[in-house]
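Homework help board

Subject: predicted structure for assignment chain

Our instructor gave us this sequence and asked us to write out the predicted structure in token form, then describe one feature. I got the tokens but I'm not sure how to describe them. Can anyone check?
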Amino acid sequence: MIVAVVVASSVWFNSQLGPGKLSKEKYLYFDKSMSRKQVVQRLVDADVIANYRAFDLYAQYKSALQSVKPGMYKFVPNMTVDQVIASLNSPIRQMVRLPEGWWIARTAKRLEENKVCTAQEYIDLANDAEKFRKANPWLPKQAKTLEGFLYPDTYDLPPTLGAERVINLQLATFKKRVLEPEKNFFDLYKIVTIASMVELEAKLDSERPMVSGVIHNRVNKSMRLEIDATVLYALQEWKVLGPGIVGTVDSPYNTYRNSGLPPGPIGSPSQKSIQAAMNPQKHGYLYYVAKGDLSGGHLFAPTYSQHLANIRIARRMKPPEQN
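My token output:
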């Protein structure tokens, strides 16, 4: 009789260790370290496992899951109890590069491609600075969106993490990389606006302060900046601008048609571009043109006539197939 009871109990217990009703893959995110009992309850709520008590007893017997680290975990239908435990010991890591200079919509597309969140979710939240202002009182009052303050970097962004968590991570990184080291911004919004143009105009670190100097010089002389990147931002497209296009784009961001700085940042600048915006090189240059070679450098000029001469030089520097 005792043997029969033990066998029956064993059969029942094993049946309760079967999978839950999960019908498709599911990701569960733990934003902090959690106890075994907290994790088991999450698994039951998510239909990953069928029975709280049976799984908890099995985990105790195996001395498993004393705690589970923060992170994202993946589960699929019909996992065995040992497979579930193995999954909880292996948080998903997905390193995603969010490049310097990219604006909100460009970043959103990459996040969607990596299944971190939908592009629209990221765009909607990133365009609502007020939602994040209480947790980030350093955000400039002029900032209606988070453009320029979503720090570019390589982040661990597992699938389904969600746009809000990505944005909070980027804002925290901006604070750590930019605000805490500098602590001396007289006008953060203006600096980030200038830095966002420097980021897209200068490929060489050595030229960032020079390009920043040109921007400052032209603004001080009430000259139009005439920066292609601002037109591309207005168009929300990254492409080569054809002849005459710059004059047709009706936008306050079009610095060919409007004097002074654009209304706000046009992308996410790096720390180096922000430093260049804060510390422009003092020189007399008002113009620059990209060299025709592959160096990524520019030719700078103090006068328009010298600028025209530099354009001719740059054209001669191009490889024959590019002319």
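Reply (TA_rk): Your tokens look well-formed. For the description, you could write something like this. The radius of gyration is 27 Å. That's the kind of observation they're looking for.
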